[in-house]
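User: If you would, consider this record:
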Amino acid sequence: MKWITRCNVKVDRVACPWLIRRFLDPTAEFLFVPEHRLLEAARECGATPFDASRLPAVAINHRGARCTFEAILEDFGLTDPALTRLGRIVRAADVRGQEQVAAEGIGVRAIAEGFAATGISDAERLACQFPLYDALYTYCGTERMPQFVVYRDWPSTLRTLW
């Protein structure tokens, strides 16, 4: 199956392809186009568009405060608790104002911004960052995963309890 999203991928537009390849379709193809061409290109290529919140016609998208990764979990009935935890990390990294839902998000955001700054292609960003999401998924599934408690005074002071 083909999927299409906006070019210049960062957090959610890397995490979603990882999720799709690992849990829905290991042979999925991903296309990246400028946002203004997304719907037209999706029709031309027979691809499913995702993560374009300024385009209401795109069904697989941010929903309220939740990110597209979480929308995919919902739409495809993926209920693995580790994926749910990972979804919160992706949301914290991707959605401004949602940093408090997972302390790990700030690091994921920094890594995504760093890859974007390298100037490598979107396909290369996926290849380089998929191992990060493999590791985060494993981390989220471990019994010893710390349960973070983030206090209301975020972002002025981030305090976590291990």
